[in-house]
Amino acid sequence: MTEGRIVIIGLGAVGRITGALLTEKGLECRFLDSREDHQDPVRYTCSLFPGTLGERAFPVTILPEDPREEAPALYLVTLKSWMNEEVLTALRPQISRGIPVVMMQNGMGNTETAAMILPENPVFPGVITAGAYRKGDLAVYAGGGCVRYDRPPILGDLSTPDLPWIRDPDLPRAMLLKLAANAVINPLTAVHNVRNGELLERADLQDQVKEITGEIYNICHAEDPSLKPGELEDYVTGVISATAGNISSMLADVRAGRRTEIRSIAGHLLARAREHGMDAPLLSSMNQAIRSLEKEHDQSTDSRS
Ligand code: PAF
């Protein structure tokens, strides 16, 4: 069993679900936040699998970390990918040296950014596929979740029946597949304003899923030629089905008028496509559409201020 506290950096939907399940398992969870006005205990209800037979809900309280205490066992980072630099730099003085930091976010480049900011901590990726969203004081876990990791081994102790932590020695492959799933699901759900499951229910959306998955397969195959035809399609379809009731993180961001993770997802893949001399027209137009939605919101905010 893991000795010591687990500190979560980023109490969005995924951070809250992870924290709730670890707390329920009896592990001590705390949070670190760089904002001075966000230092009170965080209280919410964790709602698991609403609308299914396994549905249940329980209250959760997560206390702020006190860096004057003995060092924790682990840091789990569940920030939006574009927040890494600012938040980790601000928190650096409070992060104990030598303690493992696990980056559980969408998109690519998270581990590299954290390793630069925290050179005295071992930094590892953790690939999470949970479908989670927030609705007021509820953190809803819509399903589909597991976390894949390779190191450190203590992550295996965090496993629960609702969120298994699975050791996967081929983590680069798991990261590539997760990136591909995010590049298909997130922009399409955000542009069409639909839950994940509708991507497989509506014929027009099924066509778009197929088309964009084909484009992404070509890019991913150029990155990792051992990727087999059908493997990526099966994976993406599996994630959509397992998280059918979820509001994707990008749709939640667009609805809330927040910046999205499009740059570290579609932006990353389009940059790799350019390197390989490939076109990905639908991915490219989804990338543009999400950026336009972000701009529209910026303009409407500017015109209100
Ligand atoms: O970003 C998300 O919403 C999630 O990573 C996923 C797995 C696509 C489920 O909605």
Give a summary of the structure in a few sentences.
The protein is built from ten helices and eleven strands. By secondary structure, the chain is of the alpha/beta class. It folds into two domains: 6-167, NAD(P)-binding Rossmann-like Domain (Rossmann fold, 3-Layer(aba) Sandwich); 171-304, Orthogonal Bundle (N-(1-d-carboxylethyl)-l-norvaline Dehydrogenase, domain 2), CATH 1.10.1040.
Structure keywords:
single chain; 305 residues; alpha/beta; Rossmann fold; N-(1-d-carboxylethyl)-l-norvaline Dehydrogenase, domain 2; 2 domains; 11-stranded mixed sheet; 10 helices; 11 strands; 43% helix; 18% strand; binds pantoate
